[in-house]
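stuck on this:

***
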Amino acid sequence: MERILPEVARTGIDKTIEFAYSFEPYFAPTVVLVPGFVKEGVESLSQSTGQDVETLEYLLGMLLCYPLGIIMLSLPHGKVKHLFSFLLGAFLLQFTIGIQWIHQMISSLVAYAMFMLLPTKTSKTAVPVFMMVYMTAGHLHRQYINYLGYDMDFTGPQMVLTMKLYSFAYNLYDGELIKSGKEDRAAKKCADTAVASLPGIIEFLGYTFCFSTVLTGPAYEYKFYADACDGSLLYEKNGKPKGKIPSQVWPTLRPLLSSFLCLGIFVVGSGMFPFLDPSDPQNATPIVITETMLAKPAYHRYAYSWIALFCIRFKYYFAWANAEGSNNIWYAGFEGFDAKGEPKGWEVSSNIDVIKFETAPNIKILSSAWNKKTANWLAKYVYIRTGGSLFATYGMSAFWHGFYPGYYLFFLSVPLMSFCERLGKKKLTSRFGGKSWGPYDILCRLATSVIVQYMIQPFTLLSFDWALLNWKQYYFAGHIACAVFYIVVSALPTPKKKES
């Protein structure tokens, strides 16, 4: 960062950071939930396994959510569940990120005060702005003090919290509109997650700190959390079940077991095909653009990067599958019953569809299968609230991720792929499209995988120089291919619609 920012800017930033750090002595005493012997045990385990303490703490914290989920399931419905969710969520944050847990508390309390003092028409904008600004400050701080570093800090949980409170602000607004009988298209579309009134502080903190979502998500809406806690998800007001309550054993074990498989694939695969230099990923030249790699044929370089990125994704698959199971164990991931009393399913906590993502025939399906609750947030609380603005939606997604150049190189390339997809659907699908996994469909799946794997590499490289060098080694073939496709296919006549 020193070579980018002028000295005056660096001096100002340093003083601002120093001022923020001056509050540390006041917040340090708040870290009281983690006994000293627990930290000592983790450090001892770190030394014996060779894993860094931060990674072990996060892994243990995620696995701990399962026994905590069993306890949550056994607690009586109501305030006790909310209090347990809050306290154990706070414990997990203090266990994994220490004093930085205070950011979650500060932003939650400030947001709650805004909900209390401001009308919902104002808070639906004010709270999202506040959360985005707070998270942005966190991203910029991280990049300034640890550029290209992968150390664990509060920005991960803060990203989850931002989605929760951003959504909650609109849930409250929708609830007021529906209650007053006012016409609003967006509110009607989101009526199933509308919240009629501001919950109590314990219920609110139970949601923002929810132990099974606080570390890695998923950031589902408040109503799903509240219904699981107060019992209304499963029971009528008279205590009678709304339907035959399904067992949560397999919906819990399936993602748990699959998460272990994903973790194994990530550890073994990334060890065999590292994308960045494992000895120093922050400073050393990434493996995919070393002189040794650049000397190899293009097809070899691309095949290597394809496999390396494939293995990296299993890190995210592990985290999301693990979180899915820890929510399902206490029915937070259960969708409830339909009008006939039949179970709807377990999609509330599902954040990834691995097969669907890895074999997607187009960008739309690929996007809907990856980080599904973030896609839900962007669709329901950004896209439809801005009149269907793709610019606002992609811009929000980029800001939410952070400010590394690699993110923006990728997100700016997404519209190019989307334009080609829409044009192909208009001009080609009706000509050649047929049943799923037919010749044309298989070609689409291969093309989607090849182009996306090329475009997304800067997302992992982060650095502008590294990302540009990586695309340059392929002579920007992916971008050129999209441009040529668009020009050629645009010249084709549009097939006439068949008369019914």
About this structure: The mean pLDDT is 94. The two ends are 62 Å apart (CA to CA). The CA atoms of residues 416 and 425 lie 14 Å apart.
